[in-house]
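Q: Here's a chain of 447 amino acids. Please give me its 3D structure as tokens.
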Amino acid sequence: MRFFSRAVMPASLRSLPGFRSYRSLRGPRPGGSSGPLPGGPDRSGGPGSGGSDGPAGSDRPGRSAGSVRTALPAALLAGCTAALLLQPVAAAAPAAAAARARTSAGGGSVTTLPLTAGHLLTPRSTPPFELLGVGWDGPATSLAGGTVRVRTRDAATGVWSGWRELEADGEDAPDGVPHGPDGVSRGATAPLWTGLSDGVAVQVLPGPAGLPAGLRVDLVDPGHGVGSAAARVLPAEPPGGRRIGHQAPRPEIVTRAGWGADESIRERDFVYTGAVRAVFVHHTATATAYECADAPRVIRAIYQYHVQGNGWRDIGYNFLVDRCGTVYEGRAGGTDLPVHGAHTLGFNTDSAGVAAIGTYVSDVPPQPLLDGLAGISAWKLGLTDQDAAGRTRLVSGSSASRYPLGTTVTFDAVSGHRDGFNTECPGAALYPLLPDLRARAAQLQGR
């Protein structure tokens, strides 16, 4: 078994938040494995867009309604195929010194390691993490057509995984250009849930635009979450209760306090859009064979990656659903309000994003998950009397979507992410089930 004692681990790594020795990795994690059950305005642009997400902590004044419209610029650089690899520990003193970590309450952290040039598989030790993603300076489209692969080392066994490919085309995103604290626009891959790991190797092969600057890997430790006196659960409404029109009963929703969100890392204000007329169904492209008690850890990790890694104002999804059918509040601002999300590039306006936790390309979604997706979709659309089995029209907010900026597009009220963006999301196993999901949601609305 391969591990580093504190005597040989570089001091620059031992000093990073979240570092734990091999001995500590074998003991119980703070707060247990499940942990507690798990806004500011967007920048302005042209017509038809949803908002962009600014850096956490911004003091830009908020707005109560509307959207922000900015098209992503095209990447113009050209380059030859190359590989960027993290250097091995023995040769990586400069890279280790350049590592930086951002912490969150509840023991969470995001450690950023810059990529350096190389040819060989050169893995390195890291502070413990459970989710990772690769980011860069420049538009989200900078690596379109490229390949990003990673290997990780299991913290308990010391065994390295095979190469795993990350989605590099920035499909879950605000419609404008997110910026980091330094004002530089950022792009990033979809995140990958790795489980508890303490080593990483990264390889990036460029697309037609070449390699963007500032390539880095973000390693996320979700910690044990933040305790809060706020309500942890919004109780389900009884099916037979009095409702107006075709309003479906609200399912039970685990709040942000319930999954342990650190509210200090997101932007303080909220951005709202018009009435929600469509729900876009996603999958998180994280592990599928998880314990439902661990879903809050996954959500916290995605939240930290979106905010502290990508520079978004908050987690991108409005709601998430685990394999047991539990519904979780996503982006802050009110579950019954039209909170502007960052989930479907080009169509974040007048819509809500609901993410199935897991990867449903070949794994069949369990029935409780489908019931949870139907329940939250029926309720959210029913708030505006939108027929879950009907259709609606939205206006594209980004030419990086499947439709040019300003194009009016007709969608099913419950659509898949791939209907608005060129992606496999929500997966080949989940997408064909959407007609049944729409019918079930409409039934819950009493239609």
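Q: Can you summarize the key feature?
A: Residues 367-382 form the longest helix (16 residues).
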